[in-house]
Amino acid sequence: MHKIKACVITCIDFRFQKNIKDYLVQNNHLGDADIISVAGASHDIATPQTAEHQYYLMNQIGISVSLHNPDKIIIVDHQDCGMYAATGKIEKGLDLAEDTQRHADYLLKAKELIQQKYNNIEVVLLMAGLDGSFTEIS
For the whole model, what pTM was predicted? Predict the structure, then answer.
C-alpha cells in the first residue's frame, strides 16, 4: 500500500484551482495527495441530491483510503459556490464571512459522516475565499 499525506476533496470551480494548488504546495501536499474534484465539494456528502451522489463521493474517499492510506482528509468548500446555489442551499453573492458561516454547517456534517466511517483519519475543513484566503472550520 502506498502512503499519502492527504485525500483532498475540492470543487470543480475553475476560479479556485490555482489557489488550491498553491495551498497544496505550501502545505507539502502537492504530489503527495489524492485529489477528488466534484461540484460543491462537501455538498454531496452533507446534503446529496440523491443517495447515488453521496455513495459515489464516499466511494472515491474509500478508494483513496484503501489504496493510499492518507494521514488526513481535507475538504475545501468555497465562496460563491454554484452547486450550493443551484440546489437552493446557499445563495450566491454573499460576502466571505456570511458564506463561510453558511458553509460551516455543511462542512461539519460532511466531517461527521466521514468520521463515522473513517474515525482514525483526521478530517480538515477549509473555506476558500475569492480573495485567495483559506479559513479552517472547526
Answer: 0.96
Q: What is the pLDDT of residues 48-97, one digit of tens each?
A: 999 999 999 999 999 999 999 999 999 999 999 999 999 999 999 999 99
Helices and strands (H, E) in the chain, number of each type: 5, 5
Please give the Cα distance from 110 to 122 (Å, whole number).
13
- pLDDT(112) > 80: yes
One-character DSSP codes across 56-99: HHHHHHHHHHHHH--SEEEEEEETT-HHHHHTTSS-TT--HHHH
User: Which class does domain 6-87+108-137 fall in?
Assistant: alpha beta
Domains of the chain, residue spans: 6-87+108-137
* Distance separating alpha carbons of residues 88 and 66, to the nearest angstrom: 34
